[in-house]
Amino acid sequence: MRPQLPTLDLVPLYPLLVVTGWAVLVLLADLFVQHKRALGYLALTGVIVAAVVTVALWPGVPTSFQNMAISDGQALFFNLVFLVTGALGLLVAIEYLERKDLQRGEYYALLMFSLAGMIAMAAAEDLLIVFLGLEMMSVALYVLSGSNQRDMSSIEAAMKYFILGSFASAFFLYGIALTYAAAGSTNLAQIGSWLSGRGIPKDPVALTGLSLLLVGFGFKVALVPFHWWTPDVYQGAPTSVTAFMSVGAKAAGFATLTRVLYSAFSPTFTTDWVTVAAVLAAVTMTFGNLAALVQRDVKRLLGYSSIAHAGYVLVGIAAASPVGVRGMLFYILAYAFMTAGAFAVACAVERREQSTTTLADYAGLAQRSPLLAAAMLLFMLSLIGIPPLIGFWSKLFVFRAAVEANLAWLAVLGVLNSALSAYYYAGVVVQMYLREPGRSPAEEVAFRPWRSALAVAVFLAAAATVVLGLWPGAVVNLLMGV
Amino acid sequence: MQDVPTTWFLLLGAILFTIGAVGVLVRRNILVMLMCIELMMNAVNLTFVALGRELGSLTGQVVVFFTIVVAAVEVTVGLAILIELNRLYQTADVDEVAGLKG
């Protein structure tokens, strides 16, 4: 009998195919197009097309590709988060690279490849696909971090990110191997049914595999104690790259982490990872906020703040309930707008010869550029969690899920942490509104609404922060179908 | 000829992985760290192949193909970054590449 070739159903992979194909297109167009700026807009068109495809697939299609890929509501929601981040990242980069004299075609292609890796991670239903997506995303980000070859801190950031990232990938891979040893499969659903069906409550091999996978994820989403690379890389990388990866890489890590924990290591191991996740969440948010208190560099401050926010997101995962997952999804969407927006403002404030911004650079920003300062004010208030901005609802949802899951102590700690974080976010606001400008206004980048791509990115992020904060119901309704 | 038990392969894999991990942590030369990461990846490859034989499933072998490609990609990017680093810093020692702190 002739072996039958399996039928391939590519429908769930359409967003991935669009982004990958478009990235190749951008790379080819780079050979012929002189104005590299145009490539940025070409890439942006690809991101928009992929977003349209993603919306068209809503509310999801069943697994395909030999049960290796899935496009359920959760994957599609994450796709939208990635694509929004990608769009913001491209808009920021078009302007930023121009000013830094770094305008190059590969940048846009690499950003799209990284985006493709993230989408693969969110759609993965098999640990092999998770690994491939993770590497696709990470390797592109290593290169992007070092894309400013004249800047020593950019290269240093790339090197640190690369060494620690591939170190973590090796642990992750070993985790896959041990999970495969315990369950005889790399498919998440099969691992889940095998582990829960065997009757042995705690398989030590599977438990070790789970721990190693958690180490890998911990590195990627920057959980304490695996966070050491984060501040250095966020500070050293070109700011447009930081804006993209601070959100994208973290969202992708959480997308897969949720899937691995909820479908492969549930319910046999649920009690184990709930404890680990709750402790990691508590340590991560507390450490991130404490370390951010003393920072003078705004990119580094936002780096520590992103560690703290990874802790808040983990609170939603630790709740181990559908409410917790929905809270986590909402949180990541909110985080995408707030953080990408804040880094976009940092791009605008940054001087041409610098590669980062100190708090002093923000002194008197409200006088020099009122709109930019107002946008930054919104992002800072939202990151603190002030109602009615989007950051308030995201915190409310994850903390409520924690209380419902009998993790009230974690919710209390989270609220205390939010109060603590208000100190350093307010520090930025004080600089902008209450301090006199420390340098000549001529050096300031003029903020021209509607005329620069960067301004559009800041405007979109600020608008989303306010609009989704005033009407969170739209997103909540969307998430109820996930 | 008697087969070598799978446990031995798994043990060897675990030992190689540990050597690689310790190497990354204690060595200060970036090139050596890169080699240690490769050692870790290949230790996992050995584990996968051994498991594939033991479990009688092809997954173990297939994963290794992908891992080899990924490892090659990582080395390419790593060496490129190392060359750039060497150009700017004139060193491959991680302790001397410490401009970002705080």
With helices defined by DSSP (H or I, 4 residues minimum), what is the helix count of chain B? Answer: 3
Instruction: Return the CATH class of chain B.
Output: Mainly Alpha
Poorly predicted regions of chain A: none
Strand content of chain B: under 5%
Q: What's the number of extended β-strand segments of chain B?
A: 0
**Termini separation of chain B:** 60 Å
Portion in beta strands of chain A: under 5%
Report the order of strands and helices of chain A: HHEEHHHHHHHHHHHHHHHHH
Kindly report the spatial arrangement of strands forming the biggest sheet of chain A. Answer: 1-2
Quickly give the structural class of chain A: mainly alpha
Helix content of chain A: over 70%
Shape of chain B: elongated
On the 0 to 100 scale, the average pLDDT of chain A is 90
Largest sheet of chain A: 2 strands, antiparallel
Approximate shape of chain A: globular
Q: What oligomeric assembly is this protein in?
A: heterodimer
Number of domains of chain B: 1
Low-confidence stretches of chain B: none
Compute the number of helices of chain A.
19
Order of helices and strands of chain B: HHH
Q: What is this entry, summarized?
A:
A two-stranded antiparallel ribbon of chain A has the order 1-2. The two termini of chain A are 43 Å apart.
Walk me through what this model shows.
The complex is a heterodimer of chains A (482) and B (102). With 482 residues, chain A is mainly α. Chain A has a domain at 269-482. In chain A, 75% of the residues lie in helices and 1% in strands. Chain A has a two-stranded antiparallel sheet. In chain A, strand 1 (61-64) and strand 2 form a beta hairpin. Chain A is globular, with a radius of gyration of 21 Å. The mean pLDDT of chain A is 90. Chain B contains three helices and no strands. In chain B, helix 1 packs antiparallel against helix 2 and helix 2 runs antiparallel to helix 3. By secondary structure, chain B is mostly helical. The termini of chain B are far apart. Chain B has a single domain (6-91), classed as Helix Hairpins (Orthogonal Bundle), CATH 1.10.287.3510. The longest helix of chain B is centred in the last third of the chain and has 31 residues, at 59-89. The mean pLDDT of chain B is 91. Chains A and B meet through helix 5, helix 6 and helix 9 of A and helix 1, helix 2 and helix 3 of B.
